[in-house]
Amino acid sequence: MSSSTRISYSNRMDELNTEGDVEIRCGEGSRSRDVEPERAGAPESERDEEEEEDAMPLKYGADSVIKLFVPVTLCMMVVVATIKSVSFYTEGGQYLIYTPFHEESPDVGTKIWNAVANAAILIGVIVVLTIFLVVLYKYRCYRFIQGWLIVSTLILVFFFAFMYLGEVLRAYNIAMDYITLAVVIWNFGVVGMVCIHWKGPLLLQQAYLILISALMALIFIKYLPDWTTWVILGAISIYDLVAVLCPRGPLRVLVETAQERNESIFPALIYSSTFMVPTVATMADREEEGEDHNSSNPEPNDSGSTARIQEEEPVADHPEESSGVKLGLGDFIFYSVLVGKASSVADWNTTLACFISILVGLCLTLLLLAVFRKALPALPISITFGLIFYLSTAYVISPFSQTLAANQVYI
């Protein structure tokens, strides 16, 4: 372009600037013409991104409902099927050491205070153990936590699984020699330990977490007195609400500490819909590696940056972990305790009512999770709905329907 052409083009641009308030510099007309179409299309792309961001909570909520309904349903189905077919878990007479009051008196008042006392003792034990776990995690006692969780999982996948399989074989009158039984329990336990505390297929890890939750729920159903079970369900819901939402609640402190350290909470205690890094098994190793690196590289800046990269590596290697849905195994256990206890003392109508109410409460909890976008307690809404539907169905709806059927009255 010649100099005269540039001058005339610049004069024309000045006229346009004066008339239409368009700010274009002299001599930059060609570049501006190339940039303007991109700017014109920018708002549309930004609107699309905003629409996608607005739709993400809805997609995430619907996907979360599907991913959590299936495992919760499977866990409750295992417990109900066992209660209906194996009489061992409905036989009384044996109790936990945490429930010294056995509700043997026929007086209703005595049973009530016995149940309240047992619930207070058990909730106190849970609070103490939770605070102890949070203190250990706060001061990075990863080895102790790892050993504690491994011993607990060993008891579940070996001893409780052996007891469960033995009672199922006895209930269905199936013969099995002790050698075969030992081989089955050994393989089941070893594979479970590897999947939960190290690495394994996602579906297999999820299946083991569901099974050990069902086993723990069956233990509570068998060894807790009847009235104590219902009081504990209400008390644990209140405790869950306080522990998660209060500023100094132990579970809230645990979650916030894990978020500050960019670490995932223990896989042995959390059900995840996606791959979960075995954090507890690797935290101590990373800490030792960081100490070795600090001793070999005394420069403070280099050691600090290296330590930070090592802590972020698991999240970078598995970015899908943060997008998954996580639910504590305690929620699985107490959901199953409610439904299993209802199936042991009431009819199928009450069992189905409790089952549906728990799923509805879980759905509402996930809806609140999409709104507030922070950790929320999963027990209060579901357990409250379950208790209301249990009482109304067992003591109002079922007797009413039975009376109608006995008098051949159809509505």
Distinct helical segment count? 13
The helix/strand series, from N terminus to C terminus, equals: HHHHHHHHEHHEHHH
Helix content: over 70%
User: How many β-strands, per DSSP?
Assistant: 2
Biggest sheet overview: 2 strands, antiparallel
Q: How much strand content do the residues show?
A: under 5%
Describe the structure.
Helices cover 77% and strands 1% of the residues. The protein has 13 helices and two strands, in the order ααααααααβααβααα. It has helices at 3-20, 29-85, 108-138, 142-171, 178-197, 202-223, 226-245, 250-260, 279-296, 300-317, 329-345, 348-372, 379-406, and strands at residues 270-272, 326-328. A two-stranded antiparallel sheet has the order 1-2.
Could you provide a short overview of the structure?
With 411 residues, the chain is mainly α.
Topology:
Elements: H1 3-20, H2 29-85, H3 108-138, H4 142-171, H5 178-197, H6 202-223, H7 226-245, H8 250-260, E1 270-272, H9 279-296, H10 300-317, E2 326-328, H11 329-345, H12 348-372, H13 379-406
Antiparallel strand pairs: 1-2
Helix pairs in contact: 2-6, 2-11, 2-12, 3-7, 3-8, 4-5, 4-9, 6-11, 7-8, 7-11, 7-13, 9-10, 11-12, 11-13, 12-13
